[in-house]
Amino acid sequence: MPPSKETETMSTTTTHLQPKPIPALYTVYILRSQPRHASLYIGSTPNPPRRLSQHNGLAKGGAYRTSKKSLRPWDMVCLVSGFPSMIAALKFEWALNNPHKSLLIPADKRAEAVKGLGRRKTGHLKRSRKSLVGVMEALRMLLAVKSFGRWGLRVHFFEEEVWRVWERGGKKDDGELQVEVVTDFGGPRPPQGVGVDGVGLEADGDDDDDDDDDAQDEKKHGIYALPLDYMPIKEYVAKGQAILEFERQGNCVVCQEAMEGVRGLYAICPNTGCEAVGHLDCWSRCLLKQEAKREGSGGGDEILPVKGECPKCQSQVLWRDMMKELTLRTRGQADVDKLLKRKRTRAAAKAKAKGKEKADEKGTNAGEGNSRRKREVKTTPQPMMVEDSEASEDSEFLDIAYL
After folding, report:
1. Which of 46, 61, 105, 348 could form a Cys-Cys staple with 54, CB 3.0–4.6 A?
2. Where does the record place Acidic residues bias (predicted)?
3. CA–CA separation, 28 vs 214, rounded Å?
């Protein structure tokens, strides 16, 4: 039986999917209602300021559960960042919303979560009612799972009360949870001149006033201080481009074998001043050996490391940062061009405008010169005719000179 048109379309679409770089930011967030603190909502987004505006009805979008006016406004009290893709964030979001169903959570923990839950007519368990303590416990259990714990995720807290609930739960841990925790209790409120996208609105005037931009960045707090683009790794990306463009990669920093130009997957040390380059698998084996040595074990079945030390500069490197630069270099050339040429675009536009003004001036002067030259040609006397061949060549030269 020949394949249907729908099947052919699906297969064609699948073959044209292009791999994307690790996103600059993708988060799983927790909302809490200001009027009713018992109401919580869990979602995911690459742009927390814009998503919060949607939930509060300030922009189109949002979710049905957050659309009730009696529950608005909502606060983004906590979020987890560092996911390598949208799919990874969606998996984490689903598990955090359904800890009683997720197979990533140990069976005994799931059994505790199932207690007291009724069943629907279909036989499936009802979703448990969220509480802040329950969400924090589920968050701890998920971050302790190896498949999530080795991604190098960060937990951000924007309300001190929520952070204290998280800290109280840490007393029950057995020390296995190793996650970076960031607190910012300055208040997730947008600074002056910030729109729903979380970026500053451009004002009329000089766009090159970097001091004003830096001063405004310092005033940002909470979710509005999160970087939504690749700007934090701009120097790292520029270093990688320069090393490979001018073929300064040399030998692998681990195995000492020669590396061929831009062929192969090469990872670069993210530390400033260090240009250590190596094969991807060599970096992975080196950092995994360091982890096993620190833990005093013979090594497990892990494939991806979390962190370690660069063999050249002996400074700490994070695997997530190295992979973000590598995927951006190999899969996101358009993002790289935008990142490295952002400031130069303004200067180029000004230079182009100045060049246009000069061209206009030259055109005006040239027009005046041509009209003057035409008047001179009309009043110029005709040259004398000479029979000598050499003189005739001179006369042709004179004709050109007169013109």
Report:
1. 61
2. 203-216, 387-397
3. 28
